[in-house]
């Protein structure tokens, strides 16, 4: 009886390990397919002749979110901001809280920040607008993922480039000015 139960437990553990290995194998195969499509689209942007030779199956992965994100990043690095921006926006709309959507939001913020820093020929007025757009994208990302330190750093950088100050017209509230509390000198709750 003991030997039979040990064999059953061993069989169950082996079956679980086989299931995990099969799942990881499928994920690896999917990742390799995505990498092949990304590489094919990268060569397609490099030359139109390579685009004709790129293998495309009937169930093509050209519309996979990871492929569209990689394409948008490549376009952004090439300086094709007008083409990359809408790709990022569509990914953000379709998958706002997924890993791909968060990466698109971060990269769109980077695109706007890159334009605002001075890579835009339009001048200072458009530059300030681009930095403001970048700040908005980083804040949106931080609402979704508050622990994203890269977004925090880039938001801080954008705030350093275009600081936000209170306007002179918005005077502080009178009640807020008069609600000053002074601690008792013998207070024991100080750190």
TrEMBL record:
Keywords in alphabetical order: Signal
Compositional bias per record (Basic and acidic residues), positions renumbered to this chain: 173-191
Protein name: Putative MxaK-like protein
Region (Disordered): 164-191
Protein's UniProt keywords contain Signal: yes
Lineage: Bacteria, Pseudomonadati, Pseudomonadota, Betaproteobacteria, Burkholderiales
Annotated signal peptide: 1-21
InterPro entries (alphabetical): TPR-like_helical_dom_sf
